[in-house]
Amino acid sequence: MTRPPSLLPVQCRRASLGQSERALAIVRAVIGLAHGLGVPVLAERIETEAQMSLLSQEGCDEMQGYLIGRPDPVVVEQVDPKRLLVRATP
Description:
The protein is an alpha/beta fold.
């Protein structure tokens, strides 16, 4: 038996979300399905206040993207040929 995911990511596209009824219907369906299964939803690629507001109103649980914060650079150090250690720079 396969375990359900612990988080369902939804990628947002600047051009469609908030401007297309079809895109909004898909987002609503995905959020409803995930919540029906007891799985929280993570919206990715949030770039505008309008996207964040709309997704919040639709019940999205978590959000990430350039509007919220840009990614930090990382330093990759070769520790062992079989393992890679990644850490954020201070």
